Amino acid sequence: MTYTTDEMMTVAAARVLKDGTSCFVGIGLPSTAANLARATHAPDLVLIYESGCIGAKPDRLPLSIGDGILAETADSLVSVPEIFNYWLQPGRIDVGFLGAAQLDRYGNINTTVIGDYADPKVRLPGAGGAPEIAASCKEVVIVVRQSRRTFLDKLDFITSVGQDDRSAFSGAGPRMIITDLGVLRPVDGEFTLTQLHPGVEVSQAIEATGWDLKVSPDLAETPPPTGAELTALRKLAG
Amino acid sequence: MTYTTDEMMTVAAARVLKDGTSCFVGIGLPSTAANLARATHAPDLVLIYESGCIGAKPDRLPLSIGDGILAETADSLVSVPEIFNYWLQPGRIDVGFLGAAQLDRYGNINTTVIGDYADPKVRLPGAGGAPEIAASCKEVVIVVRQSRRTFLDKLDFITSVGQDDRSAFSGAGPRMIITDLGVLRPVDGEFTLTQLHPGVEVSQAIEATGWDLKVSPDLAETPPPTGAELTALRKLAG
Amino acid sequence: MASITSLAEAVADLVHDGDQVALEGFTHLIPFAAGHEIIRQGRKGLTLVRMTPDLIYDQLIGAGCARKLIFSWGGNPGVGSLHRFRDAVQHSWPVPLEIEEHSHAGMANRYVAGASGLPFAVLRGYTGTDLPRQTDTIKPITCPFTGETLTAVPALNPDVAIIHAQRADRKGNVQLWGITGVQKEAVLAAKRSLVTVEEIVDELEPRPNAVTLPSWVVTRVAEVPQGAHPSYAHDYYVRDNEYYKAWDGIGRDREEFQRWLEEVVR
Amino acid sequence: MASITSLAEAVADLVHDGDQVALEGFTHLIPFAAGHEIIRQGRKGLTLVRMTPDLIYDQLIGAGCARKLIFSWGGNPGVGSLHRFRDAVQHSWPVPLEIEEHSHAGMANRYVAGASGLPFAVLRGYTGTDLPRQTDTIKPITCPFTGETLTAVPALNPDVAIIHAQRADRKGNVQLWGITGVQKEAVLAAKRSLVTVEEIVDELEPRPNAVTLPSWVVTRVAEVPQGAHPSYAHDYYVRDNEYYKAWDGIGRDREEFQRWLEEVVR
């Protein structure tokens, strides 16, 4: 089966979620990947949405993190203060799945503002749940399309913290950035290209990165999406 | 109808609860009086129990502040942290109805210990909800049998605060002590006998008080329980 | 006890120029009809509070009702940006918009503190981010037992909280279910509250996962069927996703937006 | 994920001598059967945590399982005193009992802090009372925004929390309803947890006012019908009030108590 680069990215992201673990699901691409994981190899993956849905089991992609199908299928439905205070904050959730408007080589994320905060060039949506997801989940996976507009040498604003200094946090922070080109993992705290999707050249990844991207000597290739993965993904997307 | 002194006390206590107000109900005598009020002149009295029952409407006396009949008949049922944090603490409840093992002329209550704390003569149950009920309700009514063992010149322990210094509290504190002999109200911060139940002599009240009880010059007499009140009370008590 | 009136009367009585107003509803049960009534009545200088400003605040901001926004995520969920919000922040159109920006966890805890009668809440949050540099309602606090440094945020106690619920009874007791967000906290934190409901019924039979707000903590109830459209009301109607998508085009252009305002709201 | 075992096995695996153990249940759903199993297995030196010690802790204290009690109200609800608790505090029988005493509001907030991964909680409490003089886990804290002084109490994070619930499914998801007290907080605050249930069912259909604890935050589930007797289990059985009254006589006398212990528990 042929597939798009977005499909490869989503499949690669879904694969990192182990069955039986819990995942705090951010809006957008992460939600698609997490739902794909549950539809394929991880039927007992516990999906947790900031709207208060714990153990949601949607059979289609939710329209938002507060879609009614999440509430209807959840094992437990709690208030928004409770989801942050009792569930996210104590570090009991295995993986936080985040998107990003901009990120840097340390996995810091900016979803707040481009340009000066007081006089912005582009005002982005802001923090939402991200700062505390990045701080408190046992580890974080970032799912984002790779481009020079997104992968920056220096961020205008740090909305959620990467690998810079984890001493204040119980969680390990971002452990993986999964893109439409490949996978980056931290090596000595700096996100390094460790894996390429089939048919992607190293030069493409370097080209799409705003910092001087380091490339692992043991560069792996992502196995292409299986027919089952693609079928499940397309069924989810409706 | 003839009636006991306990019945007079309970009826007198029930009468102070106005229809449509809210009452945080402590264990024991206060619960009987609050339920009597709801069964007679105050059908829309909102009974709130520390077990998380808001707007309970029991048709018999609950066996404890966590009786199942309170949960079944409540308008809203919440957790114990919530009842203290969202409902009691902000001062949104009109009247706190408390009992007491010991109290003094300022309306301070001891339900903790008789004798030295570290080497007690009698270890009492302790604080429960009382300190925060006394602090946070708009006003407090104490329902307690009057005797020298209970009405003391000096308490061994202050479990909840009376009229001493209300500067730290949003609530007005104890405004009335209703006993089997009469009613005490604060005059210049000191609880003073302002009302006697029918057939009770001033000397009895003085005799039953461990401090030098002041008596109001305008001593009122409590109207005796009506037939309707007694019938309702006896029906409640089952 | 809540009184039951029309929406127009409730907004006229409860929402005043310059008030701090929180319209809450986390993706679900967003009180759109009440927001439009505020626009119709021409309120000005409001401080709008809301975790997820969403289309409803894009509309209020574009209509010039707000002078300040206290929030944690301002997007069109599942679609993209809020263009009226952007235009106000980037170009002060139609009026300048001051912002006070938090994270979701911080905003949720600010409501919790407000509902609890506390002046502040404590959380693990904001550490290492640039938010504390921009937002002076984020401060460090030290645990008196462990010496650990955490974050404090001040209580939110809006002048008015406005929410939408599935139903109320004739006494004004309110029941909502499905995703209930921070609505209980917003109502309990506010000085006054307005609840619009899909319907007023004789009896609120118990439901799983329902929040019941007793009448005596609600100021006004107004019956407004479809009052959460284009968001959804669990068990009543689903989200009008086309509206959210179409908004991207309407909100993107000042003239398009003003035409919408005149034709649809005013 | 919770594993489902016998009560004896669960207590043997989860409760160790010297542990801090919280058996919670506010009047309702008190885990008596689990308490009796702890007595049968002869645990010693426990720090027992519970808002309302009740008969269950009177029995554990009388049996010599505890060295310390953290609590806020120690009575026989609706009946009178806890005589074994009194005897331990007043006469160190059968062993000395250290106490750490709070109010309900303080204890509830200590569990909330524990469940929230915070080292402390803030409340308006204890002011003007003699409790802070006796209890060093009560400290003042200043609001960094208003300068107001409030009260801080440290988190409770018991080694084990034990609760009783109406039912669990075969995966170990737990459901309880009626008065649910601080049970959710106790389980989420604890390092390990044991839930005894009236029954294990195929499916947990939703119920009004139910708390659901997902399997992955519970360590063990044990099926123990009548496991809350003599307290009650909403929709299963009512409180055995005669037992509470009879306990006053049994608990009052050391020999009577020891006879009860041999005959009924061991």
From TrEMBL, chains A, B:
SMART domains documented for this protein: CoA_trans (SM00882)
Gene3D superfamilies per UniProt: Glutaconate Coenzyme A-transferase
Domain of life: Bacteria
Pfam families (alphabetical): CoA_trans
InterPro entries the UniProt entry points to: CoA_trans_fam_I, NagB/RpiA_transferase-like
Record-stated family: Belongs to the 3-oxoacid CoA-transferase subunit B family.
Protein name: 3-oxoadipate CoA-transferase subunit B Glutaconate CoA-transferase subunit B
Source species of the chain: Kibdelosporangium persicum
Lineage: Bacteria, Bacillati, Actinomycetota, Actinomycetes, Pseudonocardiales
UniProtKB/TrEMBL annotation, chains C, D:
InterPro entries: CoA_trans_fam_I (IPR004165), NagB/RpiA_transferase-like (IPR037171)
Pfam families, A to Z: CoA_trans (PF01144)
Domain of life (superkingdom): Bacteria
Protein family membership: Belongs to the 3-oxoacid CoA-transferase subunit B family.
Protein name: Glutaconate CoA-transferase subunit A
